[in-house]
Design brief:
CATH topology of one domain: Rossmann fold
CATH superfamily of one domain: Class I glutamine amidotransferase (GATase) domain
EC number: 3.2.1.23
Pfam family, one: Glyco_hydro_42C
Mean pLDDT: 96
Helix content: 25-40%
Strand content: 15-25%
GO molecular function: beta-galactosidase activity; metal ion binding
Number of strands: 34
Structural class: alpha/beta
Distance between the termini: 26 Å
Protein name: beta-galactosidase
Low-confidence stretches: none
CATH class of one domain: Alpha Beta
Oligomer: single chain
Family: Belongs to the glycosyl hydrolase 42 family.
CATH architecture of one domain: 3-Layer(aba) Sandwich
């Protein structure tokens, strides 16, 4: 979706204020160059304080003040946190999950399939849309908020699941065979015998139920989109603020939503990205998660939530808010919006701080935000709608993510899949190789020179064949342990591993284990490769193996290096194979990221055209690039460190947009700690 300017602002709820200051807040936003707010999505209980009684006082006050201060508005459907009267009206509206019956209090505690919930959702959405449909400065609508199934698994949901299975497997014997239900007498001889799914020990069946729960989310969002579409103008967009897998920040692909399918009902993809800050700020999450969002519609996206001050540990150093904002834009976002405008004075998010602190006064974060707003008024048209053409892509797969939650790698638990995906993605990022994401539902990878496939634990035979054919026809593949191992139902393939990819990769294995006191050391011909300017003194040519190791034997592949271990030393830890017109790199084990970067540099150097566009640069100096609406290349240089860095302008001369000064080709320039330089080609 194209925008005529960058959207900059924050979530705003007058309902949360300790006193009325809407006019003052909008005045401060306008002064800071903010042009957009998000409202309404968490305020059902004030919009509908009693069953069927609607009150749009707060909504109207915010909309009217925003108009006076030239601020556009994104309105969220207020359905992700139900009012108390609704929970009292339908006690079973609260989801029954693996942990038992939810109780009222937290948000997102309801069963999204409940008829009463859906009735009241539709009623409040229609009442709100009817009330605001003619407001000219509403630019778009957000469906719900970070929607998931919330683990709903009550009797009705399970009955729906059985109907889903009946349709998918008309022959119950085929169903039993596909899921291996003879194990431990779990066979279902009639559909009426199907018992509570929450007790299953059959991980294939558990994975299928997780897939079904993702389908519930897709249907729910499409249902809301259809309602909103009946009221919106052609110029207004529909989006959703998808979030990501989470530890204490966003880390990777969301396990509970098929975002590629769910995004189909939307006009633009949106996301919420949170990340470490201060000395831990790297930009890795901004890139990895932003790339996912950009891939959903294969277009620019919206960052609907990110941190201003945020979590107490995230209070940014001077310059970091600016660095983060430009990193989002360089990745293809057309917006940066903060959660939240002000710090909240009560409840669970009291110490998740907004742009303003609890005293509502101007502070360092506000002043830095104002500097971003001033920049974007001046140069924003040169940065919006950036188009990116990348030569590499990472393939993402929900089923494999589920499979590695059910059968996790050592010590990684639920985060196994995303840890492997981030291991590869972060190495590419450190080497300044830009990449896209691609859904495992696709079968044509020919637009990319390099396809990166992390831990494809669950894969259909047609997907594996498509990957093999991609290499045979001239593509270059990087894949890892735990790939090509089980089918779509998590049933392990019964032939030599890796299934179908054996010839493409030129290897086979039939044993694997957790590494204990196992290392890998790069041979001299790899350790001495030029291409990475990493100056980290701790970056060596040896590393401990982590989490997993396949005991790989090479058939046609060439071993790059072996395990350092008296028992396992005959097995290859990484291999490369020429297959057809292409090649494949297989990583049998997981080791330190710095060592992985050296392996990738060696592999990329062997390709007909290396992917290393900036071999002289390495993290913390990060380079991003895109083409703007004027048809000009825009290159961003980011310093993700507290020390000065130097960079060279290669390939073109141009204008540094922030300062207005000219930069010549091959000119060397400095970046301040946590600094940004943006060059638009002449």
């Amino acid at each position: 979706m194209k925008t005529d300017h960058l959207l900059f602002g924050a979530a705003y709820y007058s309902e949360y204020l300790p006193y009325d200051r809407v006019e003052k807040d909008m005045e401060m936003m306008e002064k800071a160059g903010m042009n957009t707010i998000r409202i309404a999505e968490s305020t059902w209980s004030t919009i509908e304080p009693k069953d069927g009684i609607f009150d749009f006082t707060h909504l109207d006050k915010m909309l009217e003040a925003a108009a006076r201060h030239h601020i556009s508005v994104i309105v969220g459907t207020p359905t992700y946190a139900i009012p108390a009267w609704l929970a009292k009206k339908y006690p079973d509206i609260l989801a029954l999950t693996n942990n038992g019956q939810n109780i009222y209090g937290a948000r997102q505690n309801m069963d999204i399939t409940h008829a009463g919930y859906l009735f009241h959702c539709e009623r409040v959405i229609r009442a709100m849309m009817e009330h605001i449909k003619d407001v000219p400065h509403i630019i778009g609508f957000q469906l719900d908020n970070e929607t998931k199934s919330y683990g709903t698994a009550g009797p009705r949901v399970q009955a729906m699941f059985v109907d889903y299975l009946k349709e998918k497997y008309p022959d119950i014997n085929e169903f039993n065979r596909e899921f291996g239900l003879d194990y431990w007498s779990n066979r279902v001889n009639t559909w009426e015998d199907f018992l509570d799914i929450r007790g299953t020990i059959n991980e294939s069946l558990a994975a299928e139920f997780a897939k079904f729960q993702r389908l519930l989310v897709t249907r729910f969002l499409a249902w809301q989109a259809a309602i909103v579409s009946g009221y919106k103008r052609p110029d207004q967009f529909i989006t959703q603020n998808f979030d990501y897998d989470w530890t204490d920040h966003s880390i990777g692909y969301q396990p509970e939503v098929n975002q590629y399918e769910a995004a189909r009902c939307m006009t633009v993809a949106g996301c919420d990205i949170y990340h470490p800050s201060q000395s831990l700020l790297t930009g890795e999450e901004i890139t990895f998660c932003g790339n996912i969002s950009r891939s959903l519609k294969k277009d620019n996206y919206l960052v609907l939530e990110t941190q201003a001050q945020g979590n107490i540990a995230w209070l940014p150093y001077p310059g970091q808010l600016r660095l983060q904002a430009y990193s989002h834009i360089a990745n293809g976002s057309n917006s940066v919006m903060y959660w939240h405008w002000h710090s909240i004075h009560n409840a669970i998010e009291s110490y998740w701080k907004g742009i303003l602190s609890h005293d509502f006064s101007e502070n360092e974060t506000y002043r830095e935000a104002a500097s971003i707003g001033a920049d974007w008024k001046r140069i924003g048209t040169h940065l919006s709608n950036l188009q990116k053409k990348n030569r590499a892509a990472i393939l993402l797969d929900n089923n494999s993510l589920t499979g590695l939650r059910l059968f996790p790698l050592k010590d990684l638990g639920n985060y196994s899949y995303n840890t492997v995906a981030r291991w590869l993605g972060d190495a590419l990022y450190h080497l300044n190789i830009e990449y896209d994401m691609i859904s495992s539902a696709e079968r044509d990878f020919s637009s990319y020179e390099c396809l990166i496939v992390p831990a494809l634990y669950s894969a259909s035979e047609d997907l594996l064949t498509a990957i093999s054919d991609y290499v045979k026809n001239g593509g270059h593949l990087i894949t890892t342990f735990r790939s090509g191992f089980s089918d779509e139902q998590l049933k392990i393939y019964a032939d030599t591993q890796p299934h179908i990819l054996q010839e493409c990769l030129g290897i086979h294995y039939d044993q694997y284990t957790y590494p204990v006191d196992v290392s890998v050391t790069l041979p001299d011909f790899m350790a001495s490769d030029v291409g990475s300017s990493c100056s980290d003194e701790s970056c060596t040519n040896s590393s401990k193996c982590l989490h997993w190791m396949d005991l790989v034997t090479c058939d046609t592949a060439t071993p790059l290096f072996f395990y350092d271990h008296p028992v396992w030393k005959k097995y290859a830890a990484a291999t490369v194979n020429q297959f057809g017109k292409g090649s494949a790199l297989y990583l049998s084990s997981m080791f330190d990221g710095a060592l992985l970067e050296k392996v990738l540099v060696h592999y990329f150097a062997s390709l007909p055209e290396t992917l290393l566009a900036h071999p002289e640069c390495h993290f913390p100096l990060i380079i991003r690039e895109g083409v703007n609406d004027f048809g000009k290349r825009v290159r961003f240089y980011f310093n993700y460190s507290g020390e000065k860095q130097t960079a060279i302008c290669k390939g073109f001369s141009g204008t540094e947009l922030l300062s207005g000064r000219k930069i010549m080709e091959q000119e060397t320039f400095s970046l301040e700690p946590w600094g940004v330089v943006i060059v638009e080609e002449n």
